[in-house]
């Protein structure tokens, strides 16, 4: 199974420290593929730099670094384009004309070489520009016609339109335009009111268009059962030929095969099938959303439960984030196109993520959950009773003095601002709490026996809340 084609992504970085160089930028994006000569520092008042990533996945992972520190300065990242990069470099050359560049021909040659190098790198973009671009439009009524879409996008060079395409729970119109740049220009039509509705315009993947075309063709193409009914002799002959081919083929040994990275292997009689999996991270979901509702949202009814993974917080509660693992690129592409779609009143975020990164996130959350669970059941607190009503924290800490208790480890319980002779004491660890209870439970304090009980943080919270 072939993977989805990747394309280069350019990010514009702002806020770069004047002391930072290309090596610092590469270190900042450690683990992501940045080709040689793909870091272009512009500088200026905004501290700008442009970075070229070889794949869409790397670009998506890189932009998550926005807001982090690079050489002591907070940097922000934005999606850019080859055209903007070339324009910035050309403007940089023009600004330097008449100054040091005019006086120093070697400096001018160096800057010109940088522009040519950039042009060499954007040859791939020129090829990409020759490919058609795609848009998805939300908000039109289901009675909309192709001609009305053409009229709405009047200034764009539209090649084709498909109306009433279902994308998850939403219905949209798909538009094919002459180039990717033309599709990007089409985003300016978003939020324009048409036929009484605010229209949302978003970029779409070629795969979404292809899937819609295939679905349309399926309704016009006879199924295999129809073909068998129409030509039973041809079908039975084909089946006999397949049986002979299978019977005459040697068995393949699966156990010695090596798995490809990112793939898993299914064992069956005499053959090995490699299955590539595509992972997406969905954010901003309602915390109470179910896996069935996620299937409905992404129109993937056949995905098993173990391929939809809720991310839990350290308390074991669901967060607004979930992972979906697809076994087909069509489902993956369809899910990626759901980015920005509304679920209820909030837009959801859908991004690509590697299986390794997904496992890393889940592993960290699992460790945090285990640590939290252990902390909740650790009996490192003591609930103490029968002290005088006017007892002080100092007196209580002195009572537990041999076990490492200070005043700030003591919480006195009160009723309407008056002491009730009870306290919660935090010990350094569970073992120390057990030792203290065993030694001090029933010990006299000002003529009264002090009663001690070891409690967990959760129980402590309940006791303090009750007080």
Question: Which SSEs are present, and which pair or pack?
Answer:
Blueprint: E1 9-14, H1 22-28, E2 39-43, E3 48-53, H2 56-63, E4 69-70, E5 73-74, E6 76-79, H3 82-96, H4 100-103, H5 105-121, H6 123-129, E7 133-138, H7 146-152, E8 158-167, E9 170-177, H8 180-185, E10 192-194, E11 197-203, H9 206-218, H10 224-230, H11 232-248, E12 263-268, E13 271-276, E14 278-283, H12 291-298, E15 308-312, E16 318-326, H13 329-336, E17 342-343, E18 346-347, E19 349-352, H14 355-377, E20 381-385, H15 393-399, E21 410-415, E22 418-426, H16 430-440, E23 444-445, E24 448-449, E25 451-455, H17 457-466
Antiparallel strand pairs: 1-3, 1-6, 2-3, 4-5, 7-9, 7-11, 8-9, 10-11, 12-13, 14-16, 14-19, 15-16, 17-18, 20-22, 20-25, 21-22, 23-24
Organism: Electrophorus voltai
Domain RRM: 278-355, 380-457
GO molecular function, one term: RNA binding
């Amino acid at each position: 199974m072939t993977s989805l084609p990747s394309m280069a992504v350019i990010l514009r970085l702002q806020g770069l420290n004047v002391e930072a160089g290309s090596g610092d930028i590469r270190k900042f994006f450690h683990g992501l593929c940045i080709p040689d000569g793909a870091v272009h520092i512009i500088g200026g008042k905004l501290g700008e730099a442009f970075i070229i990533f070889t794949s869409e996945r790397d670009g998506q992972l890189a932009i998550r670094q926005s807001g982090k520190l690079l050489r002591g300065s907070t940097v922000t990242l934005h999606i850019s384009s080859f055209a903007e990069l070339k324009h910035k470099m050309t403007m940089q050359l023009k600004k330097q004309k008449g100054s040091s560049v005019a006086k120093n021909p070697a400096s001018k040659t160096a800057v010109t070489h940088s522009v040519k190098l950039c042009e060499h790198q954007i040859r791939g973009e020129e090829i990409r520009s020759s490919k058609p671009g795609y848009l998805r439009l939300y908000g039109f009524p289901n009675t909309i016609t192709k001609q009305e879409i053409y009229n709405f996008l009047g200034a764009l060079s539209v090649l084709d339109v498909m109306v009433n395409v279902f994308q998850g729970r939403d219905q949209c119109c798909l538009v094919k335009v002459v180039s990717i740049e033309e599709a990007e220009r089409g985003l300016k039509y978003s939020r324009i009111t048409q036929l009484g509705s605010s229209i949302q315009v978003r970029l779409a993947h070629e795969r979404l268009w292809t899937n819609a075309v295939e679905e349309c063709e399926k309704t016009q193409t006879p199924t295999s059962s129809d073909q068998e009914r129409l030509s039973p002799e041809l079908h039975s002959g084909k089946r006999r030929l397949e049986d002979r081919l299978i019977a005459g083929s040697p068995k393949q040994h699966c156990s010695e095969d090596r798995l490809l990275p990112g793939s898993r292997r299914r064992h069956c009689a005499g053959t090995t099938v490699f299955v590539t999996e595509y992972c997406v991270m969905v954010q901003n979901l309602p915390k109470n959303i179910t896996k069935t509702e996620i299937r409905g949202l992404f129109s993937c009814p056949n995905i098993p439960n173990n391929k939809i993974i809720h991310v839990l917080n350290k308390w074991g509660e669901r967060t607004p984030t979930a992972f979906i693992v697809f076994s087909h690129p069509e489902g993956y592409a369809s899910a990626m196109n759901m980015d920005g779609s509304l679920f209820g009143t909030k837009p959801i975020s859908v991004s690509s993520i590697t299986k390794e990164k997904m496992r890393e996130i889940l592993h960290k959350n699992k460790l945090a959950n285990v640590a939290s669970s252990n902390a909740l059941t650790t009996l490192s607190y003591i609930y103490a009773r029968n002290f005088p009503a006017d007892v002080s924290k100092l007196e209580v800490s002195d009572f537990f003095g041999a076990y490492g208790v200070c005043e700030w480890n003591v919480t006195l319980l009160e009723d309407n601002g008056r002491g009730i002779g009870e306290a919660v004491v935090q010990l350094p660890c569970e073992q120390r709490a057990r030792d203290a209870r065993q030694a001090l439970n029933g010990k006299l304090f000002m003529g009264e026996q002090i009663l001690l009980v070891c409690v967990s943080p959760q129980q402590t919270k309940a006791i303090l809340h009750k007080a």
